[in-house]
Task: structure prediction
Amino acid sequence: MGDSKGKKKKGDSKRALTPQTVKNEGNAFRGTFKLLSALAVLVAVSVTYLSTNQHDPTIFTNLLDLWIGTSEHWDVSHPTTGPGHDAYLPADIPKRDAVVKAFRHAWLSYERDAMGDDEYHPISQKGSNLTTSGGIGYTVIDSIDTMLLMNLTSEYTRARSWVANKLSFERDGNFNTFETTIRVLGGLLSAYHLSAEDPIYLEKAVELADRLLSAFETPLGLPLPMVNLGKSQGIEDQDNRGLVSTAEVGTLQLEFKYLSHLTDNDVYWRKVENVMRIIKAGHLPSGLAAIFMSLSQGQFVTSAIRLGSRGDSYYEYLLKQYIQTRGTEDVYRDMYDDAMTGVHKFLIQQSTKARMTYTSELIPERNKAGEISWRLTPKQDHLVCFLGGSLMLGATKSGAVVDKVSIPPLEKELSDGGKRDWKNGVELIKTCMATHDTATGLSPEIVHFRIPSDGMDDYSHMPSDWYIKGSRPGEHPPYDARYMLRSAISPLRFYHSS
Result:
């Protein structure tokens, strides 16, 4: 694992906090946060969808049409040829303007009814906070980079004023370490970059990160899941005492490392890098990761293995850490490649009829003798939809055999692993888009896939490939059918176009 070097002396130029000095590393950091900024666009598209009376699933399925295949099988009816003969897409001005309009509609309603509150409830037109002691502006900070990308100057000016004058982390309440890092710390860092380095955002980011550091004050340095920001005190999870979520401890690295890059203070880098050392030391033979680790022992505990909740972003950040350091830390590429080999070997399956590609879950089961076996469950969270885009991005980064990959890549430019990942990434995206084929056009939170042994062939109303568990004609939708404004679909397009 790469270590940071000493703090910068006065007059020194900025340098990368890795074993090698990496020139122009800031471009890689900024690129990573531009990726994160794109996630907000899906919310705006969803608001547009929900605000219309015509619930047309093609609003979502059409997003996929432009990005399937490799250069040899490119649909020439969509792209044009740009410099270097790469395929690219012209701007869709009406769609762009519709997304901006939808975002402004949502933002102005929030600003009118709940400015500064963590959450907004559009039906009651009221806001709420994550703690009784007050909020920390989750929605404001999470929206600033989108305003900057959309050039919404007046909205941005008011949001910046709120951050500068009203944002306070003096809250005697418990905030989730992971969510606060990716949304608030990450939001501040994105705003810092996109605002041409407005110092107010970096100042607030440093203050927040210093409070979050208290979560790492554990015997091994694995961060606790909650932090009392007012007291700068880490808080253990009352529901899973002695355990930490793999995704939560493995999805802090981009933000903390970027902050070290900006401040030349390696404390942030070292805290999250230590977490990766522990995860690597606890490596499972399959390359996969259980969703829980022991806080005191630093080992994976017997728990589900999945790419959905508590597992998803750990895999995503393996690849992004490799990209963030401009490919100088091979350890992250190796960990990512090992994990993806495990994903393809153990988790990726195909449905029985349409041969839809999906990911299953491995669930541990203990018999009377205390022996553990693993049951493969054909269940996929909507969160898993990140994987399609991640695989395609990984194919062009970790799986490339040339320095510059075409857009989209030529088959000869990818290794066997890269070709595998590109193909499966495309197929996973198709599956995720197919789950929007519902009465509303919205994808459910959880879907299950048909397998030969499910015993459901006798039910006439059962779909042939995928279904929402507990769903019955004419009855109230089950809990799995809920739609939660997940942003996993949006990067599928963005990664491929980058």
Remarks:
- The chain is about 40% helix and 10% strand.
- The radius of gyration is 23 Å.
